[in-house]
Structures are given as structure tokens and as C-alpha cells.
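User: Predict the complex with 2-oxoglutaric acid.
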Amino acid sequence: MALEASVDRRNYSPLATANGAAIVPASMHRLRLIPTADHKPDSYEDLKLEFTPVFFSSLERYLPPDMLSMPRDVKLQYMRDILMRYSPDGERTRVQRHREYRQRIRSNYQPLHSELYIMHAEKFFVPSFLKAIKDNTEESFRSIMAEPIPGVYTFEMLQPRFCEMLLSEVENFERWVHDTKFRIMRPNTMNKFGAVLDDFGLETMLDKLMNDFICPISKVFFSEVGGSTLDSHHGFVVEYGTDRDVELGFHVDDSEVTLNVCLETKSEEIFDYSHVPGRAILHRGRHRHGARATTSGSRVNLLLWCRSSVFRELKKYQKDCSGWCAECRREKKERQRVSIAAAKQELLKRDGNLAS
Ligand SMILES: O=C(O)CCC(=O)C(=O)O
Ligand SMILES: [Fe+2]
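Assistant: Here is the predicted structure with 2-oxoglutaric acid placed in the model:
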């Protein structure tokens, strides 16, 4: 895994994702203000859509640069997600559909390890981690942690048996998906593999994991980015290998705090940070990072994007003051300058790649 050395990117703006992959949920999908004039859009004439096909072809030019080369159905889904937000019932319909989607899985998928679905702290976590959480002091947390770069903490967390069980549960789920040809949603737009654990019944257990085990640590180390008020999560596994997802570009997460624990590695993967099964990394969601290409071997990681609705509301509120606060105006200008420079660099890099 590659992590940027600077501490964090709280002032991240969506444009900055031009400098790498953007893994954002539908709620954060964005269009560009200026269309890509030389992009040749796909035709949508053969599809029955809620708007005229020409509309989708026109809209395509406004997609972020990294979306333009995606398959047509990916672009279509992205555009529909955005349009949905503008329809009065859009968000409600999306939530309702997702609820039904989960219900369909839950009533048909037979879990393999029922003991995974209820928090058993002594069985899941290593004793050093449990003791640090029980003591619940900055000192006790620091005693089990390394901080290889500022703001990124690593520590032993999961028991090997838990990793094995979760892996076989995910494999079992994927076998069921394959056998029943169930169309599942992958963890985010950049993953073709991996599974959302919350969708097949692990939401309650992961909620407890966040509340009882990650919140105490986040309160101490990430309180300035919402770490004290985490109240929801997105829990999933990612799978890398030559026959799976290969790499993940530089990005920030749609989270305030991210927990990333390796469940399994099979020989020969090269990392800047070398993942070790059972060992966790905890970092700000806005800390830029990515996953280097897996050229051989494989790796599976558990990800928990922990979110704080309170912090997000506050941020929205804070953003508005650039109209009257000179310091915020200056910061906003600086953010724009950095993201435009990043976007330009990315375009230059692309042009260079195209030319070579
Ligand atoms: O593969 C990794 O370790 C990183 C994955 C990641 O950053 C993500 O899924 O958000
Ligand atoms: Fe990430």
C-alpha cells in the first residue's frame, strides 16, 4: 500500500481526484463545469432510458476525465446516480432500492460461519489490542502502535482464526453470487472484485467494531476530523491479484477515519507499506493513498470507512464562510490552485502517455 507522506488532505476538493482514481459513492459523484470538447461520447440510442439518449451523450462530455474511458454501462450508471439526486424522490428511491437489494441477499444467502455475525471480542481480536481498548488511554493505544508516518497508525488487531473465517465467508458469498448469477454491487466504482460486508449481514457486527473498538482510538488521534463523532460506516473487502483488481490509484476515502486490515497475503506482492495478515492501519479518510500493482500473488483486506454525519454537517457550514472570511477565501483559493495544478499535471501526463 502506498501512502502519501504529508499528514492529511482535509481541504480536498473533488477536482483533485483528477490526479488519480476517485473512489466515491454515488452521493459524491460530480460532473465537470467545463465539458471535454474533444471527447467522442457513446451512443445510447439502443437503450430505453428515462431521458432522451442524446441527453446522455451530451452529458457524457461533463464526466470527470477518469470516467471517460469507462465502459458505457459504468458511465450510464454514474450519470443516472447524479440525475437521481435532482429528482425529488431520488434519494428516497435509492435508499429504498438498496434496502430491497440487501433484503434479497439476506433472505437467500446462507451464511457459513454464523459466529462471525455477532461480536465476540475475545475470539476476534488479539489480547494486546483488547487490553489497550480496555485501558482506554492514549498511552495504552500508543503502547501497541507504530506511527510510520505522521497520522498513520499500525497495530496488531485480528486473530488469524478470525481472518480465516472472514475469508471463507467472503468466498462462500462469492460462490453463491456466482452460482445464482446474482448481480452484486462492488464496494465502490473502482473495484471489479471485492464485496460489501454490510450487504450480506455483517453490518451490526461491524457497527459494534466501529463503536466499541475504533471510536475510542479515533477520539484520541483523529478528533479534529470527526473521529469523536463517528456514527456510520461502509464495511467491505478488497481483493488484489493478477486475476482480480490489480491496483488502486491515489485517492482519498469517503470516510473521516479508515480502518484497513489485511486478511491474507499470498507470496510476492510488493508494497511500500507491507501488509501483514491481522495487522491494521488506521488513517484519516482524507489521507491520500493507493494500492501498488499486484504483479504476482494475491491479497485480501478488510476496509471499514468510518463516517461522522456531525462532522460533515459542520464542514458544509464552515465552507460557506468564504464569502465573508478573508482567511477562508485565501484557503479556498489555495485549494483551487492546488487542485487545478494537479488536474493540469494529470492531463499533461495523459497527453504524454498518449504520445508515447
Ligand atoms: O488495498 C489497500 O490496502 C487500500 C484499499 C483502499 O485504499 C480502499 O479500498 O479505500
Ligand atoms: Fe482507500
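The chain is about 40% helix and 15% strand.
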